[in-house]
User: Fold these one by one.
Assistant:
Number 1:
Amino acid sequence: MKAAEKWVLRNRTGDFKGLSDRFNISEILIRLMVNRGVDTPEKISAYLGEDMGSLNSPYLLKDAKKAAELIVDRLRTGHSLRIVGDYDADGVISTYILYKTLRKISTNVDYVIPDRINDGYGINNSIIEKAAADGIDTILTCDNGISAAEQTLFAQEKNIMMIITDHHDVPFVINSEGNKEYVIPKAQAVVNPKQEDCPYPYKNICGAVVAYKVIGIIYEIMGYPMDEYVNLCQYAAIATVCDVMELLDENRIIVKHGLKLLEHTDNVGLSALIKECGIKNISAYHLGFVIGPCINASGRLESALKALELLLCEDEKKAGLLSKNLKELNDRRKELTEEAFKKACVIAESFIEEKVNDKILVIYLPECHESIAGIVAGRIKERYARPVFVLTDGSESCKGSGRSIESYNMAEKMREYANLMLHFGGHPMAAGLSIRKENIEPFRNGLNESCGLAREELTNKVTIDIEMTAAFVNKGLVNELKLLEPFGTGNEKPKFAMRGIKVLRYSRIGKERKFIKLRLMDSCNVIFEAVCFRPCEEFEQYILERYGEDELYKMENGMDNSVSLSIIYEPKLDEFRGEEKVSINISNYR
């Protein structure tokens, strides 16, 4: 019972012909860029470029120069510094970038990464107490710290200097006049582009890029070779994709350049992981869906320190063993996720049925590993186009994660039921909480009674770039589309559509014959073949419901039939026996 889809055609206008002539690229490519807001000669030049020199100056980040100078001064004068990172890919890589560089200045540098389950997110008092006991007098946070106002004061009571680098939203309270008052920790330096008075022109950078910028200033202070600094860009690229930052502005340049460095990375651990995962021609997809999940899996199921150990490893044999272990952990995480997802679907469908009709799904999976609750919530949200909370048993209470849809501000709605939760926090699209088991049902009922969502908002919106027949799909177009890479958040893969497609033949393909192959004819009578990697059973049921058994039989046997489809597709190049062939991959049909 998947959610209904709403197909929307982008309809942005621009001087397609003029820009096409100016940049000597097709009007199709110009239309795709205009659809992404890249609609002036200046923006197009920047979008197509990859000049690292055009990145924003790190000196524009409030307190970045101050932080860099404090770090260098502390290490040069014999002080000891501890980096406190985070257990996700962004946090691990931020820690790596800082540690790798600061160890060049002094050996009095170490790191800790909080345990996801025992410590939770960010720096806490026990981490500070341990630092004091170990004789540490300087703490440098990365990918966390902006919410650590109380912990910063506690550290200072222990005579520990706090330097914060982060990228998360600055927390606030509502004052008596109903206005926001931002709460910024009173650390010696706070580097975060989200601060209101920070002049940095591009706010949507990840924690590793914030750390990378601070390190850039340190390289200048220390006079280290800048080609070494540029080489660190490959790590910032991984973190940018894994933390789902939009691939626009300088993020796009970092990822584009970082991918080139990763093709021939000099990092022994990363090289071993790339090899273990069987990656060739590395792309942003591999960063987000192969490399990143392996790094994240260590923090989810065991310790994020394993992923950091791999990045720091310089022994090929040991790196091979570590990368094998990370891949195995990620394979295990996939199994756990799939198992939990199937159970969650059963519960979700019972809540969506007409008698219950929940618009907000609150799903209790007591045996689900709490580290994958957010992944499961995200997949359920995609399937049913509803806000979702997945809750599981923690050591002292139930814990969970939520994922939302655009029209529902999850964090704001949760505040209405603060009395039912022990702890909660988050953003409009994602949140986390802990709650007593007996309060789960009142929480679910309350959210549904006050949700205010209309039925038409519970659909998956699919945005189409261009309606285009098969006649325009050729090798030249597919190669030209590579100019738009890397694809990701904010710079999604182009989606093309055709309507009124006649089905000439349908067959099953794949090792287990579970995917779809179609021979089709478009409205201009061009015959072409297409594949779709959605389940055959789903497609056949769809045809049976709309056309009947006879028409499905005719399709399967290449006979004339009355089936007509609209499709959303992506053109690709496939290699077979050394020859490249253009193929059409269907993502959606109706």
Note: The domain at 358-458 is CATH 3.10.310.30 (Diaminopimelate Epimerase; Chain A, domain 1).
Number 2:
Amino acid sequence: MNNAQVAEVFENIADLLAMKGEQAFTVRAYQRVARTISHLPTELEQMLHEGKNLQDIEGIGAAISKKITELVQNDKMPFYEELKSEFPPGIIDIVRLSGVGPKTTARLWKGLGIETLDALEAAAKDGRVAAMPRMGVKAAEKILRGIEAARQTSDRMPISRAARAAERIAASLIDGCPGLRRIAIAGSLRRYEETIGNIDLVASTDDPSQLLDTFEQLPNVTERLERTDASAAVLLSEGIRADVRIAGKKTFGSAFQYYTGSKAHNEALIVWAGKRGIAVPAPDSTDGFADEESLYLALSLQFIPPELRVGDREIEAASKNEIPTLVEVADIKGDLHDHTHWSDGRDSMEDMVKTAKDRGLQYIAITDHSVGRGIANGLSIERLAQHGQQVREVEESVGGIRVLRGTEMDIRADGSLDYEDEVLEKLDWVIGSIHSAMDQDEAKMTERIIKAIHSPHVDVIGHLTTRLIGERAPIRADFEAIFRAAADTGTALEINASPERLDLKDTHIARARELGVPLVISTDSHTTESLDNTRFGVASARRGWCTAANILNTLPVDDFLAYLKLPKSQRIKAFRNYGR
């Protein structure tokens, strides 16, 4: 059982215990374990095989270590099996829906006898859900949207899980195949799509048979699907198909380009070439190109980064040499959305800051939740003051990195803020985020967010649409009006790099960029490992055609601090005038 599957079991345990009415601290403990496991850099199976003590992992004690070991070694955990037996088999599918959760699931089950998604959909459509106490028509509509979102992504994997699986495959093939010259991840994963249908790899090797044999014999392969002299396909225990295709050294670029896609991009490329009497080499052609740059050059096109290969306007732009130099991970100088164990993070403030410094960042904002997020151990005004004092102490003790006193503050249902102005003005960085009342109608939600945008102390709006990919549908709002309000007031918008969110999405990013809104790429980290997720946010920004000049936290620390000292009304002009 891989880490993602183990983490899912612990998430399920937390939800089932919550449905039983277990104490909140016990539920949170299992949630924290799930989060810890999902971010481990090494597979638990490998750690156990190497004799490592799981109790060395922060937050995992003897009892949890035993449960994990049972699960990894036997694919079963007696505690979980017994707990599941108290509920209908389909109940977990319901609790996973956006806006439902354990308490509502329990009410639906006990009140209406609903045990499956199909039964819930029928009850939401025929009025039974709306007729329940404390539910209503809006709740029923929200449930239907959640079911639709879940079904749309049921056959695809979130990019974070697919990326980890692909990287493990590549590492295993490098270790196990001495004749391997090159291996690269292609397909939708290389293009950084939000969800991934299957994993594609392209390889060059002196021993194709050995490579394909090793690929088929990987520990997490559950089924061999296809095999030729130059390719193989398998099904992984993660529940996703993986393909590896072998290309010659001199034609690697052609194969890499083709299998990166997208299909629409490749078709548009063929049309472009055909109009000019040029042929695009097939991926298995002997007259292909060693690298992608040469292929695009032969077609009289500027190199097109994989994130832009969607079959829209990228070929026309490349023909005019209008593809910009897109933002890169190395351009990011600071992370501006990070949680510690002061609220709902796993790690200490010192560990988060040290890790950020080790990543080469010049600044980091510690933005634990505001008081309104009681479920996330949000900070009272008194605790916020203590939190700020520790920020200064940690900054001094770690050294070499600027640590900003911040908050991720709730935007309440009426648009008011969780802290008063006299509290906010003492902070260096303020994120305003929606965490509740997500089912408001479009007009009310738009008004609510714009009201927060007009606060002189809200520096950025966090994860604007609130979506969780495949789990929670985005809010309904007039995003054009919100983007314009942000541009008018000098309020930044966050590109949340958490791969479960990727919020803003690429099309929103592109529009905000066009309007000149300052954009911030932040990881929303709750663990030290999550600070590595910057790449997902950068990829989203690249898909939105962003350069470093469009991203606020590409500013060096001194320029960024100078920017923060400006009144918000002056920030847009300053942002656009920075020479970078």
Note: The chain has a mean pLDDT of 92.
Number 3:
Amino acid sequence: MYEQADKLAKGLKVLKIREQDDKQSYDDVNADYIVDEKAKTATLTPEGIKKAEKFFGVENITDAENMTLMHHVNQAIKAHGVMTRDVDYVVRDGEVIIVDEFTGRLMLGRRYNEGLHQAIEAKEGVTVERESKTLATITFQNYFRMYKKLSGMTGTAMTEESEFREIYRLDVIEIPTNRPVIRIDHPDVVYKTEKGKFNAVIEQIEECHKKGQPVLVGTVSIEKSELLSSLLKKKGIRHEVLNAKRHEKEAEIVAQAGQLGAVTIATNMAGRGTDIILGGNAEYLAKAQLRKEECPDEMLYDATSFFETDDEEILKWRARFAELLKKYKSELAPKALEVKAAGGLFIIGTERHESRRIDNQLSGRSGRQGDEGESRFYISLEDDLMRLFGGERLQNMMENLGVEENVPLEYKMLSNSIESAQRKIEGRNFGIRKRVLEYDDVMNRQREIIYSQRDMVLNGENVKDYIMKMVYELIDFTVDTYLPNDESGGENRELWNLEGLKDYFYGWLSNPDNDAIAGALNLGKEDVEGKSKDEIREELKARAAKIYEAKEQNFGEKLMREVERVVLLKSVDSFWMDHIDAMDELKRGIGLRSYAQRDPVVEYRIEGFDMFDKMIEAIREQTVKMMFTVKVKSEETIKREKVAQPTAAAASDGAEPRKPIKKANKIGRNDPCPCGSGKKYKQCCGR
């Protein structure tokens, strides 16, 4: 189905707009689906709906029976219209891997939900994996709030001060730098076109390269980093490229970005956590030399650590590392002076990011510990940020002034416009995160109740009393449902449904084969003549307790406690997973309540708690029914089944049943050598 929907999406025409309420209506546009770039949504037009109906041979694709079909089509057009290869994700070894938009790092093991990841896999022609099922969910905000103490340190928190205060009640304090910052932050330069901007970036790199000044170029996507790389190759300038495709070498590449004449292109990541030392990083050079001298990777960690040891081999490599470090430091010292004389590390930003924090992180790679350095951002009116947030006015102004693509503009108005666009988008993103948290606060209370139940089971507590409480609550609830009172609260036997009550309990509380009670639960007229509702209720509870005790004697106390835990855990987990999906569906449509002048969050809270109560009732019912109907196989039965399985397998294909392969235990490097020499393995056969 994903592949079929993908075939349809490939043949549809797309129109990309900046605003949801663009001038023309969806009915008037000459396109099959519309992509709102700001909201990152894709919507079929009436023309697109007709094509989809014709493609799949259905009369009305929006019918309830075609809901699954419509879901696949919507995800296919989103995969084609909104998600971009080498920006939002990369394809590596036949697998679609998400790229973190802020750090540029690969998010291995993470997948888009609701079938979007599968739609992208179909688009890229790789194997479409199964949809994942959400087992648990929590927002980062509520996850962090679970800690008794919360604090952090970063070089770029001031721009998000209000969010830290509002969400976590944390103050943000700015610590003065150890040495004065002497980095020169040049004003932004704005170009009319992206081509003009990249020409200027290459000129700036050439100029720095001639005088030996190292350059670190920050890009917003893999695509842009590879475009810049190809332009530099044409100019014959040696450079290193660091993006999500080469993130394994991140620290290694960035550590040497301060060498004389070095040019490094980085995607949103700029190797945080690694010092860019002017002239080059002696520590990384020493490590590289140790690798050449065949120092094992696990030994490399020990050789560069400081823990106490009497291991001769570790001490030997440590001495070699100290020797190399001293050698490279003395070699790099004059080069560091040359780099400082050339102006220090020059940071070039090829685009302003949505978040000012990311821009500040990039600039902050230069000018560390009072070093010389420079930074400058190059912007074009075709950049996403400028195009989506306020670039139209500037575009018109440049057109009227007749500005050519290679002519830069450095106006205060432009810098203000860029900062205003960033503030707008940061405020918008904060609003989205805050709204998500408001919705998750509703789930959080429910999460606490469910996980307290799970913890009780997982910690091996005795849950018999808890199960019996569930049994009695279920009997109370069922009796009240089938034997209701009248409006005044008194008993009215004409409203009673005795047959319904008997049918409900049949098979687990009223089983004729059960020795625990004499015969079936015959709730006929003769049985209830003169009996009140409370007497019937108590009789049911007494019978339930009697059956439960008989079952416990049959199973044995130890096994019964284990069965209780397994049954309760299974019930809680299966209903909780379904509840998570149901709450997601509720959240998706609840925003429409605002048209009726109602607060969607309040509505979500009310309906969410109703759904939660129903889920608790369902857990209670399933747990009780399973406890009364569960059977345990005897050891003889299990043995017979185990013997029968390999025989059946051999009979089906005529081959001998496969035997398990036994793996030998791995010998540790410091273990005695198995050859019997008395030496450590690493100093004997391990060599």
Note: DSSP finds 23 helices and 13 strands in the chain.
